[in-house]
Amino acid sequence: MEPVTCYIKERSFLARLAARYMGGHQIAMVIGRTIHLHGTSRENFLRHTWWVRHEICHVMQYRELGLVPFLWKYFWECIRVGYYANRFEVAARAAERDAAIMERVKIV
Ligand SMILES: [Zn+2]
């Protein structure tokens, strides 16, 4: 299968809002195929292999479900079981140890 092209957006306004809401300093969040960063540089983010794998897993989840269905299900999970137990987050945390996930993407 062709690798999925992913993008990185530094100093993202959306990630800044998420950081304010979640109370984090360094944050990465995925919308579609773009990883939005706040409080961290592209270089610093890419140095953390586990972190990149985690966000790539979210890219795959978007790809599987489609943009709007993913967002809908993701937020519904958050309301229902909270952020930590959210099945999309559980899967993304498991992906942090999955080196093979990187073969499915090309980060530009
Ligand atoms: Zn996550």
Number of structural units classed as domains: 1
Q: Compute the separation of the termini in Å.
A: 18 Å
The secondary-structure element order is EHEEHHHHE
Helix vs. strand class:
alpha/beta
Specify Rg, calculated over alpha carbons: 13 Å
User: What is the mean predicted local confidence, pLDDT?
Assistant: 96
In which range does the helix fraction lie? 40-55%
Number of helices: 5
Could you say which overall geometry the principal axes of the C-alpha atoms support?
globular
Number of strands: 4
Low-confidence stretches: none
- Name the bound molecules: zinc ion
Task: Tell me what the structure shows.
The protein is an alpha/beta fold. It has one domain. It contains five helices and four strands; from the N terminus they run E-H-E-E-H-H-H-H-E. The protein has helices spanning 13-22, 42-47, 49-65, 67-81, 87-95; strands at residues 4-9, 27-31, 34-38, 105-107. A four-stranded mixed β-sheet has the order 2-3-1-4. Strand 2 (27-31) and strand 3 (34-38) form a beta hairpin. Helix 3 (49-65) crosses helix 4 and helix 3 (49-65) crosses helix 5. The model has no long low-confidence stretch (mean pLDDT 96). Bound molecules: zinc ion. Residues 54, 58, 89, 92 line the site of zinc ion (ZN).
